[in-house]
Structure formats: C-alpha cells, structure tokens
Amino acid sequence: MKKTLLDNLMRKFQVSKEEFQKHKDYYNNHFKEYGNEIYQDVKTRLVHLQNFFEINWFNKRYNLLFEKYSFFDCIVEVGFGLPYLPLKTKRSKLKELPSLIYVDMYESAIKVSKEILKNLGTNADFINGNIEEKKTWEKIKDNIKGKTLIVAIEVLEHLKNPIGFWENVQN
Fold it and tell me: How many domains, the chain?
C-alpha cells in the first residue's frame, strides 16, 4: 500500500520521482533554511507521507494518538499535514475511527489528504483556516461532536501568538 499510495499521489499531483527526491532531501536535511512557506507545496505533503511510512521520529510523534483515539467521539487535528490516524488504522486494521476534523491553513494539506482518504475509503471534515483567527475556531466549534480531543503536533512553534491558541482550546 505504501509505495502504491505514494506513487498514485505523485502521479495525481504531477510530481516526478526526481522532483520528489530533491524536495525530500531539502525538506529533511535543510530545515533551518526554510520557513512555513514550504508547507504550501504539495511535495512537502508527499515527503510527510514517505517519512510517516518509515520507522523514525516523524511517525513516533503520533503514538499517543494511535493508542488513545478510541476514547474520543471526535478528533480535531490542527495544522495536521496529513491524515495520519486513518493511515495508521487502515494499515493496522484497528478499531473504528471517531469523527475526524482536520484544520490547516494550506490548501496543499487538504488536497493531498482528501485524495488519501478517498483511497482509504474514510470520511473526514476539513476546515481551511488559520488557527490564530477566531472565525476558524468558530468553524471548529460548529463541527465538534461529543468527547473531543484536539491534536496539535509541531504546530505551536509556528504560531505568532501561542497563548491565543490555548485560550481558544480552553473555550
């Protein structure tokens, strides 16, 4: 599934193997050279997928989510990058997923993730918005259901006002 999914996405988004490899090397090895703008690029999302399929620090960040997700009715992942929980559960044939809401300000995350979920036969709601804006949190509140977990992995360091994030989570 891993190679087929990545190959299909590369074809869908017209990314050559050479472009992908060059971007992967840059993204993984030169992180002090770029800022948040790199997340606008679909190739970055494809690199995230490749990194997730490898056993390393990248996918281990999600272990707690993978272990505890079934305790929740709804999971909201902000600055999500890719739908890692469905990728993991479909590969591992784990329990049914709760309601999923993905929030990101970059369309690249949403476009690639919708394709992945289509391939996995999984549904989710997507919110294209900035979590530093009230209107995004209003959309999140309108969509949550029941006992909710908010996940923000490698997000806070990118925010101009992390305290505002915590205030919105509290609300």
Answer: 1
Amino acid identity for residue 88 in this structure? K
H-run or E-run covering 111? helix 107-120
How far is 168 from 17, CA to CA, in rounded Å?
41
- Does residue 92 register a pLDDT over 80? no
Q: Could you tell me which of 155, 144, 80 has the C-alpha nearest to residue 114? A: 80
The pairing of beta strand 125-128 with beta strand 148-151: unpaired
Residues 6 or more apart whose Cβ sits within 8 Å of residue 120: 83, 86, 87, 90
The CATH code of the domain that includes 104 is 3.40.50
pLDDT digits (tens, 9 = 90+) for 45-66: 999 999 888 877 777 778 878 8
Alpha carbon 68 to its chain centroid, in Å, reads: 17
Residue 18 tokens, joined:
């050479």
Q: For all residues of the chain together, what is the average pLDDT?
A: 89
- Residue ranges making up the domain that contains 131: 2-170
Residue 30 phi, psi dihedral angles, 5° rounding: -130, 40
- pTM assigned to the model: 0.83
